[in-house]
Specification:
7 helices; alpha/beta; 14% strand; Rossmann fold
């Protein structure tokens, strides 16, 4: 029962980074995978639909389109997110609201849109990708940390509310991972290598994770081997948070 054969899966934010690695891993293990992203999908191995997570109507339309293509939804993975590095006193209301909208309200919209199919599945599972920054803050990321901490609690709340529908909801909290989003946090700095080493020094394991390492954790929590796991928060962060 370790594979995903017969499972219908939607990965939100699956065009790149952790999301793309997760989509590929789940497909390799037998799942039928669809991807929702605001960017066009370069990998045509998956069914896909474009949507901006701040647009509830577009999210609903994309979810409905893929659910019909796949014949339902058993697993939803929320990987999409944005970062904002700035001193809190300099963050505008608009910038703050946008980070919260994408990183917290966005997953709420996709979970809500997928709910009818997850309920009908009888084995529904959601994995929301938060961040170690939602467990232990980092400097100049107040909006990001707040949104990601909120996503942890959203996941726990949904796990509590939707257990009666046989829908499991769990959270994965990555540390630094080799993705385009991460690279933008240190490349272009006055001393990029010093900034990269500063980031590595936050982690007891002393390195940056690969996307596939996060995909393994997500795939485990979404799949049948974790059938009795719900409401949990799994830090995959090299020991930074010791959560």
């Amino acid at each position: 029962m370790s594979g995903l054969a017969g499972y219908k899966i939607i990965v939100v934010g699956g065009a790149a980074g952790i999301g793309l690695s997760t989509a590929r891993m789940m497909a390799a293990r037998g799942g039928a995978v669809g991807v929702i992203d605001r960017a066009a999908l370069a990998d045509d191995a998956f069914a896909s639909a474009m949507a901006d997570l701040t647009d509830a109507g577009a999210v609903q339309q994309a979810m409905t389109t893929l659910a019909k293509m796949l014949g339902g939804i058993d697993i939803l993975v929320n990987c999409a997110g944005i970062d904002l590095e700035a001193a809190t006193e300099d963050v505008s209301d608009e910038a703050w609201a946008h980070v919260i909208d994408v990183n917290l309200s966005g997953p709420m919209r996709t979970c809500r849109a997928a709910f009818p199919w997850l309920k009908a599945s009888g084995r529904g599972a959601i994995v929301n990708v938060s961040s170690a920054a939602g467990l232990r803050p980092i400097a100049d990321r107040a909006a990001y940390c707040s949104a990601k901490a909120g996503l942890v609690m959203l996941s726990k709340s949904l796990a509590f509310d939707w257990a009666k529908h046989a829908i499991r909801v769990n959270t994965v909290c990555p540390g630094a991972v080799h993705t385009d989003l991460f690279d933008r946090s240190w490349q272009g700095k006055e001393d990029p290598q010093a900034r990269l080493q500063q980031i590595r020094d936050r982690y007891p394991l002393g390195r940056i994770a690969e996307p596939e390492e996060l995909a393994e954790a997500i795939t485990y929590l979404a799949g049948p081997t974790a059938a009795y796991v719900t409401g949990t928060t799994l830090a995959v962060d090299g020991g930074r948070s010791f959560h």
